[in-house]
Write a structure and sequence with these properties.
It is built from five helices and no strands. By secondary structure, the protein is mainly alpha-helical.
Length: 140
């Protein structure tokens, strides 16, 4: 049995390490347009398969990217943001928040003023000083 040696190449054992979570590939607009241009230029049989193998792509990518290109060159090829869509800002919502903050501030001021008035009443009762109302009559 003969052994053939590899000249200039070293054999390395594959690493058994498995990544915890595979990284999702993201393709830029420029890459997509370049690959679509190359795919459209493929005229002979087998050229498209060679392109897909070389780039490590699936044919379904080309289908999706062509559809996106036809819908709108740049808008369709931009990656879509995942997750919930942002709610449009409403001027009424901003005004509502401002009024709520102002209402809370005024409530706190009123509470402080009532506390001060109560203290003044108790001090006047302790010192036997009669308090007068707005009408000029003594409170009582």
């Amino acid at each position: 049995m003969e052994r053939t040696e590899l000249v200039g190449e070293e054999r390395t054992a594959p690493t058994p390490e498995v990544l915890e979570k595979p990284v999702r590939r993201r393709f830029t607009v420029e890459y997509k347009t370049r690959i679509l241009a190359e795919a459209d230029a493929c005229a002979e049989p087998g050229m498209l398969g060679e392109l897909l193998r070389r780039e490590g792509l699936y044919s379904s990518y080309l289908t999706t990217w062509r559809r996106q290109r036809d819908d709108g060159v740049l808008a369709g090829l931009r990656p879509k943001r995942r997750g919930r869509k942002a709610k449009p800002k409403s001027p009424l919502a901003d005004e509502n928040k401002r009024l709520q903050r102002e209402n809370q501030r005024l409530k706190e001021q009123l509470r402080q003023a009532e506390l001060i008035i109560d203290v003044q009443k108790k001090v006047s009762e302790m010192l036997n000083i009669p308090l007068k109302t707005r009408d000029g009559e003594e409170a009582g």
